[in-house]
Amino acid sequence: MLIYDVIIVGAGPIGLATAISLRKLGIENLLVIDQARVFRQVGQVVDLLPNGLKALKYLDFQAYEDVKKTGLEFLNQAQFSGEKTEITQEQKPSKASSEWVSRNLQGQTTRAVSLKYDDWFKDYGEGRVPITWYDLQTTLRNQLPQNQVKANHRCINIVDEPETGCVRIDCLSNIEAEANPYAYWADGQKDNDTQPQNSDTAPQEKSLRAKLVVAADGINSTVRRVLYANSQYHTFAKPEYSGFAAIICEEITEIPNKLQTELEEKFFQGSRILTISNDEISNSTYKSNQRMMLFRRQNVGYMLHLALPLNSLQGKAGNALVDLALQELEKASFPDVLQQLVQKSPPANILQRPYYIHRATVSDSVQIPGVIPPAWSQGRIVLVGDAAHGMPPFMAQGANQGFEDALLIARLIANIAQKNNWDDMQAIAKAFEKYESLRRPLMAYVQQATLTRFPSSSDKNQLDYNQQVYCSNVEQAMEALL
Ligand SMILES: Cc1cc2nc3c(=O)[nH]c(=O)nc-3n(C[C@H](O)[C@H](O)[C@H](O)COP(=O)(O)OP(=O)(O)OC[C@H]3O[C@@H](n4cnc5c(N)ncnc54)[C@H](O)[C@@H]3O)c2cc1C
């Protein structure tokens, strides 16, 4: 019976980064499995920020260099203007394109954040690069031997087997992807992976075994579900609705000239991307939860981030979503010109995306009131990345925080290996507790910032946040492990 030292479930950025780090630290008997039948072009652009890049650099310099290079090429090619979408070559960058601008409802600038790598490097000792999720996955995958990353292996169950001193992972291959109600990917492809790898191959079930399992299978984690489902923590098995959702219209093809001019003069003002909310110009105490990200490619499009009950979204598409968006904009006193724009949304181009969360701290939500969340590990299994603490992407920290997880957990597992503690359940529990005690408080802070957006409520809060999050000290965290 082949027993791996470590199996990582999920070949997303965090699973792969963990594998790269483990190999670098001398653990070669490992395997990464993913449910995708084939690795394909899916997902959005993610911004890698100083803390995530620092963690990546520390865990493997080559991986960091390659990711940075791919990201900077993307930035240059697309003349990236801060939007999470493509920009065509013929669109020349305006001066404003190196900044992400926020404006209030009157069109006044409340904030402008540089998108240049060098500006971030100057302030935080590391830069900022945008990279598509697929490019990030591919670049990290290329750092590993091909036979150590297996697609077409969907984990469906996980069982601790004390008699063999390992964990059994049951996988299915060649099956249709199951519908994912957590709809993480805007293009819907990722979870609707119908392209068979080999149409002659019938569905297959197989089991794999490992001494330790790192669950990096994303916000809709199967491992997490299995761990918590039949316990007092069953309410934490599935992601909780965060209270926020996006309504997105990729492009509006027909905008009357008058409306176009008004939008340009009042809001775009030469920018290609901006966020509009009714925040005051400085030190605002009143903050709105309703935000509109406006972007311009060949045509204008928008993304609304709205605080909404989940049931107000359920089953809504097309015109019903346009109506909901208009209702929310009107309630939040968004000006007529923006409401007129939304009215022009082609029903076929509009979609919704509810955002989910795995809270790192005691929840005050109605769903799970006042219950302390369960540990991120059980026996030989540990959760990392979105499987542990997935959250809405408002602060662009999901992948960045996940890289910090990867760095710490790999170092702790390498320690177990070095001391040959594979069968010492106390040593394993201690290592996983250490990981959690270092990561959970920061995750609670980042999630709070994400849900309340308090950093933008005052300059001081913003500075504190930048200091705590972007300047996290990787060397110090490493020392704390020993
Ligand atoms: C619109 C949007 C914008 C974002 N922007 C940013 C940003 O700017 N910056 C940032 O840091 N983060 C951002 N994020 C968050 C970021 O994408 C995630 O935090 C990050 O991808 C998490 O990585 P992960 O490896 O933990 O999980 P995932 O990226 O979700 O990867 C999980 C992997 O596990 C696989 N898998 C799932 N279930 C199974 C199973 N049962 N068996 C085997 N394999 C399985 C999946 O196929 C996938 O490959 C954004 C997210 C969204 C939705």
Summed up, the domain count is 2
Number of strands: 17
**Major sheet characteristics:** 8 strands, mixed
The CATH first-level class of the largest domain comes to Alpha Beta
Bound chemical compounds: flavin-adenine dinucleotide
Mean pLDDT: 87
Structural class: alpha/beta
Proportion in β-strands? 15-25%
What is the CATH homologous superfamily assignment of the largest domain?
Answer: FAD/NAD(P)-binding domain
Task: Set out the fold topology.
Elements: E1 3-9, H1 13-24, E2 30-33, E3 45-48, H2 50-59, H3 61-78, E4 99-103, E5 109-114, H4 117-124, E6 129-132, H5 133-141, E7 149-150, E8 154-161, E9 166-173, E10 204-215, H6 222-229, E11 240-252, H7 257-268, E12 273-276, E13 291-296, E14 300-307, H8 318-331, H9 336-343, E15 350-357, E16 377-378, E17 381-383, H10 386-389, H11 398-418, H12 425-452, H13 459-470, H14 474-481
Parallel strand pairs: 1-2, 1-10, 2-7, 4-12, 10-17
Antiparallel strand pairs: 3-6, 4-5, 8-9, 9-10, 11-14, 11-15, 12-13, 13-14, 16-17
The structure holds flavin-adenine dinucleotide.
The site of flavin-adenine dinucleotide has 32 residues, from helix 1, strand 3, strand 8 and helix 11.
